């Protein structure tokens, strides 16, 4: 559950916008994590992207400009993709876990939407839901 809490912070830091197209989560649907590199620390870290860009990333279709937006070179992108493939091949039940978190995210989104009307800070409640 640390992962979801951490990713929630990351999404918040990115103002709930896709790192690639800058569309807000409200428009694109729940943002998903991809690995990139933060320029300041030169280390791999997680970026939130919209479902469309997540799919594009996973399929290896990111363009040079898109790679640049998450701070990785073509070579690093290839390495990241092969890591992802290895993880999937290892059959850690990732796809089920991912599906689970997706449905959870959808629920959370609905809750957030409802709560945003009343108050801006929903994150303590949000964590309880997980
Ligand atoms: Zn996007």
Strand and helix layout:
Blueprint: H1 2-13, H2 25-28, E1 32-38, E2 43-49, H3 51-58, H4 64-69, H5 74-89, H6 94-118, H7 123-129
Antiparallel strand pairs: 1-2
Bound molecules: zinc ion.
Question: Mind explaining what this structure looks like?
Answer:
This protein is mainly alpha-helical and 130 residues long. It has one domain (2-92). 60% of the residues lie in helices and 11% in strands. Strand 1 and strand 2 (43-49) form a beta hairpin. The longest helix has 25 residues, at 94-118. It is globular. The N and C termini lie close together (7 Å). The mean pLDDT is 83. Residues 18, 20-21, 23, 28, 49-50, 52-53 line the site of zinc ion (ZN).
Précis, in short:
The protein is mainly alpha-helical and 130 residues long. The protein has helices spanning 2-13, 25-28, 51-58, 64-69, 74-89, 94-118, 123-129; strands spanning 32-38, 43-49.
Characteristics of this structure?
130 residues, mainly alpha, two-stranded antiparallel sheet, 7 helices, 2 strands, 60% helix, globular, binds zinc ion
- Poorly predicted tracts of residues: none
Strand content of the residues, in percent?
5-15%
Query: Would you list the SSEs in sequence order as H and E?
Result: HHEEHHHHH
Number of helices: 7
Shape summary: globular
């Amino acid at each position: 559950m640390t992962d979801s809490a951490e990713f929630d912070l990351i999404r918040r830091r990115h103002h709930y916008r896709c790192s690639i197209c800058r569309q807000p989560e409200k428009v694109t649907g729940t943002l998903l994590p991809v690995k990139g590199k933060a320029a300041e620390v030169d280390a791999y870290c997680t970026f939130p992207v919209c479902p469309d860009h997540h799919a594009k990333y996973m399929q290896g279709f990111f363009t040079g400009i898109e790679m640049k937006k998450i701070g990785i070179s073509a070579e690093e992108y290839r390495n990241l993709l092969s890591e992802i493939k290895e993880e999937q091949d290892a059959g850690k039940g990732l796809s089920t876990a991912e599906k689970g978190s997706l449905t959870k995210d959808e629920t959370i989104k609905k809750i957030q939407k409802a709560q945003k009307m009343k108050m801006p800070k929903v994150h303590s409640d949000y964590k309880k839901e997980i």
